[in-house]
Amino acid sequence: MALQVGLVGLPNVGKSTLFNAVSQAGAEAANFPFCTIDPNVGVVPVPDERLTRLSTLAASAKTVPTAIEFVDIAGLVAGASKGEGLGNQFLAHIREVDAICHVVRCFEDDDVIHVSGSVDPARDIEIITTELALRDLDTVEKRLDRANRSARTGDKALVAERDALAALRDHVGDGQVARTFTGELDPTIWRELGLLTRKPVIYAANVAEDELGTDGDGGDNPHVATVRRIAQDEGAEVVVIAAQVEAELAELDGEDRAEFLESLGLERSGLERLIEGAYALLGLLTYFTAGPTEARAWTVPAGSTAPRAAREIHTDFERGFIKAEVIAFDDYDRLGSEAAAREAGRLRIEGKDYLVADGDVIHFRFNV
User: Fold this and answer.
1) Separation between Cα atoms, residue 79 and residue 172, nearest integer Å
2) Considering all CA atoms of the chain, what is the largest pairwise distance in Å, rounded to the nearest integer?
3) Mean of pLDDT values over 148-154
4) What's residue 35's pLDDT?
5) What share of the chain is helix, strand, coil (3-state, %, to 5)?
6) Tens-digit pLDDT profile for residues 97-150
7) Per-residue model confidence (pLDDT) at position 367
8) How many angstroms separate the CA atoms of 185 and 261, rounded?
9) Terminal CA-to-CA distance of the chain, rounded, Å?
10) Residue 186 half-sphere exposure, CB side, CA atoms within 13 Å?
11) Could you count the other beta carbons within 10 Å of the beta carbon of residue 29?
């Protein structure tokens, strides 16, 4: 599945710097089967040491990581819901993404002017959330108008739909995000509405290089603490980054990159932690296929059955699914090969009801 994360943020918060770093990191990824898709889309391979190890053990000719797309959504300012700045373009793009990464400025720098005159993460988050909620309110009101007309027939289902939409309108109209709405609404209607404030959010707290803290925890930065409190109330994720550091990392590889990270007290880059946070937020997992031709990683929602996971490779795999031959990555790694895992009884035959686990190495049998 193609995972898309939309980068949003006010001017001068570091969003463009982060996106440029993302784009550079994607451009320099070896053996990755994508090139530039759009000027505002950066495609980045998802780092996974397990895939590298599998490729070595299986003597694969090619290694293909799974990918994440970062979409740079420009032009959000106060009034975007009414078309201010590039508001309409912004809102059109954001409807297509799976999750929103809200870049929040958490650094003080007199040389970088803040659009609102001061650094205040709570205010900045509220500005963007308000713009999204206002656009959602407009969307819900239009759908409610249609529902009101339909409900005049007295049909119980249509009346229930109208009442649920009215409750949703009141909820969003009170300044609350659609994610926290607890009323019952048909899943089809949710999809058709495509509400912006229903999308999962991960906050990227952008700090100065010397404020990254221990392995990117933000240290004692009070602005990061503010973002964490807001995220906790919303059930959102937080990743602390230094966009300028990510820009420098994007130009390094190998030992130079490792040494730079070590000098900052980091085990992983902010981009890697951001990707991990997005996977956790969306409830995704990775399984692998491995052989002499290629070793490849695949992304599926947690709770996917074997046939659903097979669909990622090809719809025929799902349609004609017979069985899945499964080896846990730890067993494959310890025993050294598929043949050794089979001999040791660590290769399992699973059927249609099997729920794929993170790290499974799978060979699908199918017939169409």
Assistant:
1) 17
2) 70
3) 93
4) 34
5) 45, 20, 35
6) 899 999 999 998 887 767 767 889 999 999 888 888 888 999 999 999 999 999
7) 92
8) 47
9) 22
10) 10
11) 15
